[in-house]
Request: fold
Amino acid sequence: MKKRLVAVLAVCLFSIMAVCAAFADAPELPDDNFERLILSVTVGGKSAALSGAEYSVTVDDGSENAAVSVGCAAGATCTVKDEGGNTVTEVAPLCKGARYVIEAKKGSFRDSKNLVVYRQHDFYKAEVTPATCDKPAVYQNVCRYCGTPQGDAFEEGAPDESLHRWGNYVYNNDATSERDGTETRRCEVCGKEDTRVKEGTKLGSEQKPDPGQQETPEPGEQTPDPGEQTPDPGEQQTPEEQPAPEPIEFPDVAEGKWYKEYVDYVSANGLMNGNADGSFNPDGRLTRAEFVQILANLAGVDTTDRNVATEFADVSAGKWFTPAVKWAVDNKIVNGISPTEFKPNANIERQQICTMVVRYATDFARAELPKTADKITFADEASIGNYAKDAVAICQQAEIVNGMGDNKFEPKKEAERSQAAKIITVFHKIINAG
Reply:
């Protein structure tokens, strides 16, 4: 029994050794058959690099599409497919990488490798923000293909001063006996000020003869007769009639325009002026500071002294509008946007104009505005600020303001210069009539 068992074990052991020997003599299979099947990949004439299971290449010739070819081992077939599974012979490079799949087969071998085709970034200088009247243009280097920015945005060039939106010149009431006064205009966009000399405003510019010097008549000039009757100092002389003030003719204020008479009135009475180029800019906007200055002009107050202070951080001493704002605050005509902010450069709203006009009439001029029109309930009455509701109603009934169409008042709409000219004309006539 034992002999038989030993014989069986010996046979089994021999069989196992024979099998192992057979495997030892068999050829070793390659670890990566595709490395032998896919020999090379070329895109747009550039060889792709293999890393692991992925080929990658960067195309930098700017082409929208690039031909792709795969070098296969003998007897193998290779195809390139896009993400939709379509066989392609051209690929479309992308900056972020366009993905494809290379499929190869030979006999029973099957496998695939990825192909990623990148496009070289092509950066150019793109304008991000155009130049303004006080700031140069801002640029950013951006890839023209994918929009990827390179580095930080940067300023280049100079501000475009032709973009200034100048308001009207306002006389500064700063003439002396030694020099003419000045007038200042302000850009509605950036707040820059432009000051020029206002010719002919020097105080006492007429030359007076020296009281101790006797005038010698020119040869041939008639010498007064000593016996000539001298007018009685007590006799009342008839003053020479003063000519009516002449309005300024603005090229952009044509005859037939609804605002022509109002622009003529405010310019003739020195309440509003034009721009440096001779225009009035009827469609332009007014700032809060400019409207307060107009009210100061209407009141005839002296705004010469700029060395005055206000409670507002944005209305400091030395500004052209500071004296007018201080006068308006002192007379309860204006309030600030907050206890420390006036916003002089903000465009004025229609409801704010009504509030200032009514306060001028009641607190400064001590005048009662007439009620010559029936009260209108505007369709947008609810949008009028609570602080301005009464003032809007008073101005509407006094026919200082009207609606803007569709029975709307549009209280927060920024007032145009032509509208302000009408408001100031009507208001000035009411105050003068009172």
